[in-house]
Structure formats: structure tokens, C-alpha cells
Amino acid sequence: MRKCLEDAVRYVKGVGPKRSILLEDLGILTVRDLLDYLPFRIEDFSKVSSIGSLCAGESATVRGAVQSSGFVGSQRGRAFRVAVTDGTGLLYLVWYNAAFMYGALRQGDHVLASGKVEWRRGALEMAHPTFRKIPSHEVAESGPVIPVYHATAGLSSSQIAAIVRNALEEYLPLVDITVPPNLAEGEGLPSEREAYMHVHRPASPSQWHRGMKTFAFREMFYLQLAVQLLRREAKTSKGPGPFLDFGLADRFIRELPFALTRAQEKAVADIRNDLSQNKVMNRLLQGDVGSGKTVVAMYALLAAAGSGFQGAFLAPTEILARQHRTTFQSLAKDLVRVGYLTGAVTGPEREAVLDGLREGRIDILIGTHAMLQGNIVWRKLGVAVTDEQHRFGVKQRLALPEQTEGPSPHVLVMSATPIPRSLALTLYGDLDITVLDVMPEGRMPPETVLLRPANSYRAYRKVREEVFRGHQAYVVCPVIREGKTSRKSAEEVFENLRRGSLKGLRIGLIHGAMARTASEAVMEDFVFGRLDVLVSTTLVEVGVDVPNATCMVVEDAGSFGLATLHQLRGRVGRSRHKAYCFLIAQEEQGRASEERLAALTRITDGFALAEMDLKLRGPGQFFGTRQHGQADLAAALVDCQVSLDLIMRARESAQQALNLMDRGEAGYWGEALLGEVRRKFGDVFSYSMSR
Ligand code: ADP
Ligand code: MG
User: Fold this and answer.
1) What is the pTM of this model?
2) For 542-579, how does the pLDDT look when each residue is reduced to its tens digit (9 = 90+)?
3) Which residues, at least 6 apart from 252, have a Cβ–Cβ distance to it below 8 Å?
4) Rounded to whole angstroms, how far apart are CA atoms 374 and 394?
5) Minimal CA–CA distance to 68: which of 22, 33, 106, 29?
6) Does ligand 1 have an atom closer than 6 angstroms to the CB of 262?
7) pLDDT digits (tens, 9 = 90+) for 187-223
8) By alpha-carbon position, which residue is closest to atom 24 of ligand 1?
9) Ligand 1 pocket member 292 (CB < 6 A)
10) Pocket of ligand 1, candidates 540, 545, 546, 568: which has the most ligand atoms within 8 Å of its Cβ, to mutate?
11) Cα–ligand 2 centroid distance for 506 (angstroms)
């Protein structure tokens, strides 16, 4: 059989049936997926220092033999301490509160370790270094650069590395057409084939960076090509026809228990104008957390219903979909017939919803991506709204309109991740943009306080006070359960709080590994005030609206990005009561991280924070993590600091390529580009080259 990149991954040497299932969990189905599973960072063991030459304050890599190891008491709790020597001196590797290190390093082991050297208790010490045990046959060799992959239970990073190596050997010669080599060359970047070698088997850190840049450029190029193709299509495609009756929507606005902000009024006017046209609406509504995007979306949906069309309201999570349903019930109960469809709605219940949609007994469907799947037939879809668009990718953005035969519906996408203006064009260049830049009256931004772990009792004292006043609080942790990292887990924090500083309060726990019904029940208890405190992972990041919650504690805040922290903080400060956000973080997380956290205590405006994030970490993080169903790509792009400049050049290249195609001069090359766009974003482009 002839090999090709679309071969199932089980054809790669070292992948059996068991591993191919594990790989599938990582989103890797084909050889191409495997090659595109880029390491999100590297460990550089290429420059090894002798221990005798180390100075406090520098970051270094050392290699040596373990003299002794064990747990010792310290001011910061129990620590695992390993004495390492290379014949020139002695260095302690230290892990605080790290039961998982038990037995990881023993006397006689050889180890490579990287980290920051400090002078503590009269000795040189490296706290929480990255390390690798060296097998004895390797001890003599000098340390290479090691790619690090996101691993999964049963498949470690180094096992993935070995599988990728096998794939490269067999399949690398087949890589040639996806990024046209002349484009990469024009940028002074390695070709795609070289880049795969550079990122998966780097000889040096700079080689890895150069390889990553090629992929960054590739992703940006295709994204730009897709966006520009969409823009053309939007200009020419026929809409569902002008909406004629805004009576229902206007009545909804009149009957709201509050007056719209100026920004909301403007947004409503923009949308009304769009919907009155023959052309199809393609609008992005951007507004900081809490700026009141939901009622604007409801206006568009009710305008559809009033004019005899149906509306779709797509939310990224079940929690959010349910919340929107509740909002409709309380604010627009008598105005429209609402249907609800998520993964939890099955069997006859689901059939009933589908029938209702087909026969027009449902005006507005609220739900999750479940409404993008399967055999859904709309009677007359007029408006599709996607909430928290940054949680989806371009591909999902296109899925709803694609579902309908005949004229495309009007599209409204909403995002609470403020995107710097310079980037909005790149990501959403096919959309018109409305910004909600005014907050509802009477809101006070949460007071944000940065605390060291030793002072976290102050945060929990405040939580008690707030609960005593009848308010509620969130506690957010980076991971679900204790594992191979020292990061705080929701389960552990929940147990500790219940027995310790929040004893006597009604505390709930919610995270992504719980059964759906269980997490729904907990969320509902919190929404209806039957719980005082909700301990959770970032599950509550997007959209959750419980105005009575006035206090948030974020454990291990240093492990979250700025945008995520800002989103999280947006869960409080949603009423007239003063709100608090406590960020708890270790000191030694590095300067950029400190700067990020400090910025949050000063800045409450999402756009200002976004500009800051752009400066600190580059634009990579603004690209939806699920852009192409490839979660790690975005993370990797963040790490290699895709520059704004690179994005702009990708945009130009895409424009040029499109011009060539228009003139019929692109030939086979153009076909290949289009094929690749379709592969990445779905078969939604009707563009065909004039030849
Ligand atoms: P987001 O933009 O983050 O999605 P929401 O739409 O959830 O924000 O609105 C946040 C809260 O503010 C909701 O409880 C909503 O009812 C309320 N709200 C929206 N608009 C106004 C307004 N103009 N005045 C007062 N409260 C408002
Ligand atoms: Mg929202």
C-alpha cells in the first residue's frame, strides 16, 4: 500500500491498538496529526555548567550523581531534598510539598537538572528544577535538547517523542505541499519538512524556535486565507431577506428591568440596521465581562422570531447554555417559544426538539455544540448567535450557517476576550465589529489583591465575612486532583477548606471530571444560593453569572494566563456590592508572571490588559485554543512568541496568493492551497478559481 500522511496513526512503528486509542484521546488520528502534535516546550540540556562554577541568582543546567535524597522539614512545610555532586561541588535540588517526588531520585542516580540557583541555608540550592534521570549508558554523552509534549495517562512525553521519531523516519519524505516552500523561503524560514525535524528533534534551542516559526507562519497563513475567502463570500452571499417586524424585540427592550447602557443601545441599533438589509449580517460583538452582551443577543434572536424566522443561540458549555435558558425564561417568557438542546438531551426528548425545529414550533434554540451535530433541520433559520466565540474556532463559527440549505442566516458572534485592535482584523477580518465599551451603571470593579500562600488566610477570612453578609464566593484551582505537579488541586483545596478555614459554611465542588448531572446539581445549588462557596477549576471561567457572588480566591494564580484571570475575575463584581478578588501566588514564578499578576491588581479594563498581554507574551494566546482542534498549537505559538509582524506578513502573503488565484495564475499550487484550507476549516468555501 502506498503511504500517505492521512494514514491512520496505528501504521507508525511503535503504535499498537492500545496506543492508538491513547493517541486518539490527544486528538491524533492520522500520521499528519502526529507530526503536527508539536512539543509545547523544550528542555535545554545542551549547556551544562559545572557545579563548582555556579553563582546564586543565575539559571543553569547541571549534571551529576545523587549522593543522598529524602524528606526534610522546612519553614515552608516538608521538602524533598536531593544532594547532587559532579566532583566540582555540591548542589541541593529541592521540591516543596511534593509527595509525588517520593522515590523519584535515589542515591547513585545520574541526573540532569535545570533551574535557578539560589543561596539558602548556607548552600547552593535549586528549587523545583526541571530534571531528567540519565540512563547509565548515556552518562558519558553530553545532554541534548529534549522536546516536551503534552502527555496523557499511559503515554508519557518521552514515549510520544519516540513514536514521533519513528513517524519522521517513514513519512517525512511525503511532506512537501502543505506550506508552499517558496512562501517559507520568502520569509527566511525553514521549509515545512525541515521544520518538522527542527521542532521534534532540535539540535539547539534556536533551531526549535525557527522550526516553530514556520508552523506559526503556516497557521497564520491559512487562517488569513480562510478569513479572506470568508470576507468575499460574506459580501456576495444572499441573506434570509430583510426582517420587517421589530415589534417583539422592541417590546422586550422596553420591558427589561433596567435601561440599556449607551453602548448596548448602539449595538442594538447596529444589529437592527444589519437585519433590515438584504445582505447577510456578519457581526462580532466584543465586550468585556459583565458588559451585558446577552440582552443584545436576545434582541437579535427576538427580531428573528418577530419576523417569522428561527434563531440559534450557541454556548460553549452546558452551564452557560442552561444559564441562557434561565435568562430567557425570566426576561422573555411570554414572547417566544424556546427549545433547548445539549449533549444531555437525548432520546425522545431530543426527537421532540428536532421535530419542533423542523415544523417551526420552536422559535429559538439554545444549546451547546450538540446543535451542530447530526441531522438537524431548521424550518427557517434567520439568526445564529455564538456566545464566547473565543472558545470556539473559525471552523465552528462556520458550522451553524452551513447547516441550513438555501440562504445563510445572519450571524452574530460574541466575545469577552478583548482583542487588541491590531489583531481583531486578522482574526475577525471577515466581520463587522461592535464594541460594548460601557459597563452597566453602578458597577465597581473588584478590588484585586495579590497574596503569598502564607497569607492566604486573609483571603479566606474575607470569604467568611462576605458569606456572613449573605453573599457568595468562588475558589478557583488550576487542576482537578493531586498529581505529578505541585499545583493546587480543587479536590484537595475543597477538603482542606471544609475541615479548616471555611468550616461550617456550605461548600460545593465542581470540575470537569464529574458526571454531568452531578456538576449540574452543584451549579444549580450555587446559583440558587443553597451553597455559600463554590470550589472549582476554570470551568466557571466563561460567562457564569451569579450576581450575589462578591468574592473570588484564585489558588496558584501564577499558573493562569492574564486573559483567563481577567475572565475569572469577571465572575464577581456583577452587582452593586463591592467585590474582591484574591490572587494567591508563590513568589518564585519568574518576572513575567509577577508582572502579569501585578498588572491585574492595577488594571481592570479588559482592553488595557489585552494590550499588556500582547506586549508580555506576544499574540499567540489570542488565537482560540480550539482553532483547528489542535489545542497545543496555540500554546506552542505562545511560547515561541509569534510576532505581530509575522502575522501581518502572513496576511499579505494570503492576499497575494488569492490575487494570483483570481487571475488564474496559481495553477496546481492554488488548488493545493484551497485543498488545505478546506482540510483545516471544512468544506464551506464556494470559491473556485477562474482558470
Ligand atoms: P456578559 O457581557 O459578560 O455576557 P451578561 O450579559 O451576562 O454579561 O450581563 C451581566 C449582568 O448584567 C447580567 O446579570 C445582566 O442581567 C446585567 N445587565 C445587562 N445589561 C444591563 C444594564 N444595562 N443595566 C443593568 N444590568 C445589566
Ligand atoms: Mg456572557
Assistant:
1) 0.70
2) 667 899 999 999 999 988 878 888 889 989 988 889 99
3) 298, 299, 302, 331, 332, 335
4) 20
5) 106
6) no
7) 788 888 899 999 999 988 888 888 888 888 888 888 8
8) 440
9) yes
10) 545
11) 27
